[in-house]
Give the backbone structure.
Amino acid sequence: MAVIIILPKQGQSVESCIITEIKKNKGDTVKKGDVLFTYETDKATFEEESPVDGVVLESFYKEGDEVAVLLNMMVIGQPGEDYSALMGEQIRGKEQEETCKEQVTEPAATQNPELQTSNSSNLSNSSTFSTSFVSPRAKNLATKEAIDATQLTGSGPNGRVIEKDIQAALENRPKMTPMAKRMTAQEGLQPQGVGTGLAGTTKSTDLLPVSNAVYGVDYEDKKITNMRKLIAKAMHSSLQNSAQLTHHLGADARRMMELRKKVKKAMEAGTLKTNITINDMVCFAVIKALKKFPNVNSHFLDDTMRLFNKVHLALAVDTERGLMVPVVRNADDLSIIGLANQFKEIANGCRKGGISPELLASEAGTFTVSNLGNYGVEMFTPVINLPQTAILGVNTILPRPKDLGDGVYAFVPFIGLSLTYDHRALDGGEATRFLKQIAIEIETLEFEI
């Protein structure tokens, strides 16, 4: 019996996913456990396996599609099996939608004589369009706007070029006069930069012959990923909707560097299995400071401050797919070894794409640490992960002069700390005292190895 494969729901906050790769296409034979397709939420990637042996009888979406969760993705059954009763009207849902769009009549053409000449000339060549490859509405619009639809990649069923593909091509082309459109279609001329017409419209005199393909275009327009769109939206929203201010302070790092040496020796001796890094130590100090400044361990909710009893520490992780900020819940209950192990686990989950979306939600964390010290960054301004009220940026360690007493100065290693806080939630004095407390915790750090 045929089986419907749906797009699973990964977490309560996930409403749709992007299909990243179709592993099995219509007509392919599959075994139970074979990966059918991969998909991603805003920050995590997943694989969907076949629950049965059989053949892919139908596949409703293609790579790059954004699909709402719980919708039907595929049908798997035996060759020739009738599954129409199982699916009802959903099998041809996408095709029917496109068909309905194509049946809408085009508006009457403008009476501009030049445009009418252009249209009549282009319509004479419209027979070169394959009706099975280009939809009627797309063909009409392509003819009107002097677009070669046969050169476009279609987003319709079976790769068919539909109207929105022509519209997308027009968005990337400068505005053109009717004469310029006609010359583009007939003589192979191309617009170059901003036109000399009104509002930058390209005129016929602005057109140039197509140049050498090797040197004609020295750039590539690349669509940003769904994840990058979400990161951009979150960062823009954060800066627009909060009053952010950053304080910078250095902390004497000699104590941490001594502990780091002890960690290395213990690992070499085999008495310690977990590699405790400088970042782990900083985060351990941050947790101690947050327990003493509960107003910082909070969310700002317009007219309400939500103060948390537990520290849910978020850590910025750089991955090939972009920045991810997973959360270690109840981090204040962990020893430094437990904290280090948790950080390594969530970082690996982010890089492999298997971390739970619930741990990536900005609301899941109460405070965030972003460490750029390994890259040699001396000072930066981290952006708050709203609705959290603050974020700590950790910088590289640099030698700085310090008064050792009795008029003796020496260069000692200092680690840079950059605290960005929401001034709506925290006053500058409180933020400064909290940052100073982090430095104190770093300089007096103690833990058992």
